[in-house]
């Protein structure tokens, strides 16, 4: 691959040219001591785990004057056999290491070779950890230089800094997953990394060398040496940003914008254009070597094109394998280019956002760049097709708009005049996904590692000096990477930076929407990375974001995102739950404590910093008086809040015996529904009195601290601290408390939450959640859109869209938006008739159910255990463990068992894991402290590993092939009838369970079943360990919703044997 393939999309031209000539530049440079007396090192191991894996090869080379003058290489004999996948990767066999030295002997030989010299290693933490785990390994060297982290500083505009990729970019081909080859490749790359650092400038090198110089940091001597070049002035990141960010870079072309505003006409995307992309010999076939034409994908693309052209809402359930990402991206891109308007794509997770940004959208951009896509439609200018209405009519409105969006993608020169298509796209994430330059500079120049700091801030604990040192170094590296990135990249988020977040607090280099200083920040708006991303989004054809940010924008009346009027909501089955979570109002003991700790008083926090600064300013007496009074009122408000939560804690303890509130220690969160009956009790009236006093104290604190902030702004040009975010936080606390305790709006369901943390301590929260999310969406968001497509593999329950329609507000639209036949979907579509579309015109709400292209009939089996006892039975766990044992043995691993609660999962794991270990099978469990993403990566990497998991694994796990061959649904995932939302609904409607709990559980089961078959060649078994599927009348609804309609009911003891006889693999 060429270097161009690895440059970030927004890399400025001059930076790109520097990178392309970097190899030649490096050859002409003299790096003196930085090229002499270094050891380059690499290792190969039996896997990635520091706890269970071992060294199998070590290689090293000594560098003098850019040349390798000596080499060291040895195999290492591990105590276990080398896994087959490692042999395939490295070509190191068990025979190779049979007579090799032990790890201790090999490390001793390495120590003699290194002789204490500095070591260069790509991802040095990995190699160093494996070597120092061996006795005597800590004596190899005191200085390890991580060239992976250093390359991220030197070359921040690259999308990858893997050794193999860097070697390919700069013309080396030695990387082969063998240690000596990797050593030689790294030796050749070392001058290029140094050259990249030199091009960042001696001013930045000096700044980094001097940053927190009281702490050891392996990179400091390198930066200090490179800083010996002549420095004209000190490092000024604001000036650097000004040079790299052109304020008019994303300003729409004036002529195009005027033309767009003047013309009410849409320039349609024609059916022929869509066909030309997806047909067997079409544009896609020229990009994907193994492209397969899928009629289902074409049909979905046509559905998207239809709704974008005519306006309205479309709900599309597209089965796994349809290829829905490209099916909605292609028509959206064509529509955007044709009509100079942006299209928003909202996904549930940033994982899918990144997939779209790094896989599908670059392919689409390549299609446009190579002009293999017909952009200009054949419809004449200023003409709307007969029988269609302009997409200017907002969803649910009775009239049509007279203008298109004022947003203009700079790809056309006049309305209807086709120019060379410039296709642009970007991602928008929340504030905490972007580096905050104001906080970075503050962290780089002010003490952040003082002993008074919270241990969590630098990852240190008493008696762990080495870990603390590594954590501090990781923080310094994070600051260096962020500054280098800001100097070369106009836009981008922190996910590109490769920061080790285990040791770096995110708050060190990012801000929040509440904490952003906006106009008070020197980087606002043009030099700010957050607002640069938003400016870019304002003129991009495709804007990819997540549900959370979109819903925050809805709640903030459209001030978060650009004014997009065409939306695709992917993973739409989660849209309602995300909205309920984001639109909740809450006041918690933890948030209250953090807010008042940040505000501080006369001796600590922001108020203290301002008092110290005010002492030397004009008008200091007035400001000091206001700040002192603010400190007193904030202390009073803090005490009132503590009193309130003490009352709440006592109330919860009184409720415990009757509710079993603390009885089950396996649940992290417990809830109490604040019903009208509970509000009438004497115990709650006592809480109400305390809450009233708390609100009064908060009002006084907000009023006074706001007055102090205004005087500070008038008197102090550059304050050492800002109270803006603190004022916002106090106002939010007051508003939430007022809503819950005073206003008591019927639009919300209210509850007390008790969250159990490590050490069995408890945090309390008062919480208000929107009762009807659909009503909010129908009132505040859907009518503002000209088109909206909801899509997912699981939108229907038993073939019915009614539950989803209600969840997102579609059934609340006006007469134009009412559903036909109660939202029943049209089952008449046949895959061999791709031209078939909805025949009804002028219906702004459409539904389509597009089946998967996978052969479930032959590749998937569904088994139901018909005789397992109910979960309440004393013998349930033992019988479940017996069945799972036979299943795991029959499958020989690769089983994902999905539980609905931690109690059952832990009890079953305790019985099953030792038995499986004796059978040579590995079983992992989702622990409370385990990252779900890390566990998912481990599960995918270790192909025979089986896993017990909870809710987070019911959807979103993409493990194709032999990694996952069996999914066990232990229990049907009904929501608890005792959670506050269920109780509030039941109090208003006696059919709540049928309207909400049942369809939600069916959709969850469909999601879980979707984990099993992820490609056309996958085969697998879906097992239900819940006999209610056969004994309850609702069971048939679950079974009929599965892609494989046939099932086999067996006694639990025979399921393992049945699997053995399937011969599917």
From TrEMBL:
PROSITE patterns: HELICASE_ATP_BIND_2. Residues 384-413 are annotated as: Disordered. InterPro entries: ATP-dep_Helicase_C, DinG/Rad3-like, DnaQ, Helic_SF1/SF2_ATP-bd_DinG/Rad3, P-loop_NTPase, Ribonucl_H, RNaseH-like_sf, RNaseH_sf. One of its GO terms (molecular function) is exonuclease activity. The keyword Lyase does not apply. Pfam families: Helicase_C_2, RNase_T. One of its GO terms (biological process) is DNA replication. Residues 283-649 form the Helicase ATP-binding domain. Keywords: ATP-binding, Exonuclease, Helicase, Hydrolase, Nuclease, Nucleotide-binding. Signal peptide: none annotated. It comes from the Bacteria. Residues 399-413 have a biased composition (Polar residues). Belongs to the helicase family. DinG subfamily. NCBIfam families: dnaq. PANTHER family: DNA REPAIR DEAD HELICASE RAD3/XP-D SUBFAMILY MEMBER, REGULATOR OF TELOMERE ELONGATION HELICASE 1. This is DnaQ family exonuclease/DinG family helicase.
